[in-house]
Inverse folding.
């Protein structure tokens, strides 16, 4: 046991004892971190509001047997703008919910950390792209190792007539390979999903209002299927 430095993005926290909180963070070096912030629930806590969800922080930790204790914390990025309205808060909550579900303790997860960081930055602007959560979910599937096939049939590999989608089979299907559980995709949706999956979160292609909602539905249901859990944060928006 000793003192060590780390950084992380706050995923969530919950009460611990009378005045403390357990703060769960995503660290690029150690995966999911469960730490204790002592006295943080007191009115005059020395941590102030620096351990709120979504905050990117630098930490000094005292290593304990079960939980590390936060002794110092400084804000790297507070992401103030994404807290400005409900839709952005829900979007950020969805991103951290996915990261929380995927990350494991004591397992470095640089790709997931960088994805979450880029996602929060994409929300922390004056006019966030409407499809940033859709793109994030598709990219998170890739980090997990279950990236959907979007440019070729998941069954035969053909790149033509991709008009069906099957969650269990892993992505789009051509009409010849349709299987039980697949459903028809609207014209243009396959290409739209591929554009979201492969573009940088800060440089997403122009939104297509006629396809945006359907794209979110596919990305959400695909990731929920493979995580075997519902994304509760998105239930607020009834997507």
């Amino acid at each position: 046991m000793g003192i060590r430095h780390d950084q992380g993005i706050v995923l969530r926290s919950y009460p611990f004892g009378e005045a403390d909180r357990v703060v769960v963070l995503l660290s690029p070096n150690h995966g999911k971190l469960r730490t204790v912030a002592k006295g943080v629930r007191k009115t005059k806590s020395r941590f102030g509001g620096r351990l709120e969800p979504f905050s990117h922080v630098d930490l000094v930790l005292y290593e304990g047997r079960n939980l590390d204790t936060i002794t110092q914390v400084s804000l790297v990025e507070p992401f103030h703008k994404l807290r400005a309205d409900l839709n952005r808060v829900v979007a950020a909550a969805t991103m951290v919910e996915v990261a929380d579900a995927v990350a494991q303790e004591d397992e470095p997860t640089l790709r997931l950390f960088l994805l979450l960081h880029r996602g929060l930055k994409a929300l922390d602007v004056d006019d966030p792209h409407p499809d940033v959560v859709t793109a994030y979910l598709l990219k998170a599937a890739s980090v997990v190792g279950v990236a959907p096939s979007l440019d070729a049939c998941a069954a035969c590999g053909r790149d033509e007539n991709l008009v069906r989608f099957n969650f269990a089979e892993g992505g789009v299907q051509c009409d010849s390979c349709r299987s039980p559980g697949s459903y028809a995709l609207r014209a243009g949706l396959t290409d739209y999903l591929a554009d979201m999956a492969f573009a940088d979160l800060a440089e997403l292609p122009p939104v297509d209002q006629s396809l945006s909602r359907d794209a979110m539905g596919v990305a959400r249901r695909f990731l929920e299927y493979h995580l075997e859990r519902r994304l509760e944060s998105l239930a607020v928006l009834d997507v």
Remarks:
- The longest strand covers residues 3-16.
- Helices lie at 86-102, 110-123, 132-144, 189-198, 209-227.
- The mean pLDDT is 92.
